[in-house]
Amino acid sequence: MKSCFIAALLAATAVSAGATHAATTYPTRPIRMIVPFAPGGGTDLMARAIAVRYTETWGQPVVVDNRAGGNGNIGTEIVAKAPADGYTLLFNTNATLVINPNMSKLGYDPVRDFAPITQAAVLPFVLLLHPSVPAKSVSELIALIRAKPGEFNYGSSGNGGGAHLAGELLRTMGKLSMTHVPYKGAAPALIALIGGEVKFMFVSIVPATPLIESGKLRVIGVSSKKRASSLPNVPSVAETPGLAGFESDLWYGLLAPAKTPSEVVDKLLQETRRILALPDLRNRFETTGAIIVGNTPSEFAKIIKDDLARWAVVIKAAGAKIE
């Protein structure tokens, strides 16, 4: 009995020492950071900005590997099935972690298969109107739609995308009757809005900013909980009476495969937080409307779970499917 106890104690000590050693020495070889989208997009740019600083700190190459396809699901699944050793990471968005799982059966579970490290940034959508719409606020837009049920249409970058679901969230929370018109991407949707084919739409703050500044389109709200620093005079949609709790945005986050040692997760967390606080990185991304976050793994995990439940209701009501 005593020998069994001693053996178990030695085994536990060895595991603890091994984990501590892993955290102390990690990383000892190159790290692959998978981005499940094509190069050049916002997710890719932030991933590369973080990866280059990992390399500078640790002296090990951190290589961004773009594995686009399947609406982001292919690259995400690769990480879900990778060894849980900290050498394969995922820099991803809420599209593949909380939206896609509500629209089709996937080869990974967004909660069980990943170890969240930190939510890096949030990019709100903005609610844009064609100049012919005589509304200066979200409340006024809602009043117009209610006065003419079924006559207002709104555009989006595609069925099931973040812009579409933001519109559906407005429709369900506001109890509105309006028509969704999907386009093949944000650019054709914006062209349609400028031309008056659709009356309003949610769109990422990045392509929207020059159109707002030129006066081609009117902005009446941002979709994040708080106002965007780049548009401080534009209220959040959630400030509208009756729409408290409205939140729909794009976020970026860093994850590892499930069961990655907690010591390795913590080392990645601390370094990522340090990088996100660097003035040059903040200036680069905050000027585009991004809100830098850097929360804890438990806070990030709760966001994923809460968003899965919240969007399940909206997606079911919209009947949205991955195109």
List keywords for this structure.
single chain; 323 residues; alpha/beta; D-Maltodextrin-Binding Protein, domain 2; globular
Task: Explain what the structure shows.
The structure is a single chain. With 323 residues, this protein is α/β, with parallel strands linked by helices. It folds into two domains: 29-122 and 249-318, Bordetella uptake gene, domain 1 (D-Maltodextrin-Binding Protein, domain 2), CATH 3.40.190.150; 124-239, D-Maltodextrin-Binding Protein, domain 2 (3-Layer(aba) Sandwich), CATH 3.40.190. Helix content is 44%, strand content 19%. It has helices at residues 2-25, 42-58, 73-80, 94-99, 138-147, 162-174, 186-194, 205-214, 262-276, 279-286, 297-318, and strands spanning 31-35, 62-66, 88-93, 114-129, 153-156, 179-182, 200-204, 218-222, 249-257, 291-292. Strands 1, 2, 3, 4, 5, 6, 7, 8, 9 and 10 form a ten-stranded mixed β-sheet that branches. Helix 2 (42-58) links the parallel strand 1 (31-35) and strand 2. The radius of gyration is 22 Å and the shape is globular. Residues 15-19 have low confidence and may be disordered.
